[in-house]
Amino acid sequence: MAASLDAQSRKILIYMTDDTNEEPQPLILSADALDALASALGAALDGCESSVATAESCTGGWVSQAITAIAGSSKWFDRGFVTYSNEAKREMLGVRVHSLRKFGAVSEKVVQEMALGAVKKSNAEFSVAISGIAGPGGGTEDKPVGTVWFAWANGTDVESSVMQFPGDREQVRLGAACVALQGLVSRLPDWLKNEKKSQPDIGES
Questions:
Q1: CATH number of the domain where residue 169 is located
Q2: Over 80: is that where the pLDDT of 124 sits?
Q3: Model's pTM, two decimal places?
Q4: Rounded distance between C-alpha atoms, residue 194 and residue 153, angstroms
């Protein structure tokens, strides 16, 4: 994926690519897109017995806010962790001190531990975690402003990705919230299918 900022709309465009030779397709990340993604997540989980938890740092609960704006989300959203400080990440999600010291809060290792911790510390089967540098300060040469790490967990399995968002603080945070939800929506069909397969068939006795 690649990100750019549309000068006219001031909206972030995420260009989605795959293994084909087709032209990348833009996804406009906006407040409307965030609402649509939250609705899509609810539709995917509607009627299931599975639920989702969130672990947010730089987005400060924005993903949870979008989810709970959907009527009936209490059926499939368990809880949200806003772990802005390193101490909160350790206490609430069980992120290891070693990981924070060696890799930093904005890193693949830490965001993976956040996602797995969100599942472990909640009643949810699935989770998403976000940790990044929204700016305007705090960036480094290795991790410039706009760097955001994501992780999506399904039980003990976790996948991660990093994005570099353009724009100001609000645009980085909004873009991160959208990508976090999009990652859940895109993974849920396979997760739910595998979860159903893992459940034992109960026949008549």
A1: 3.90.950.20
A2: yes
A3: 0.86
A4: 14
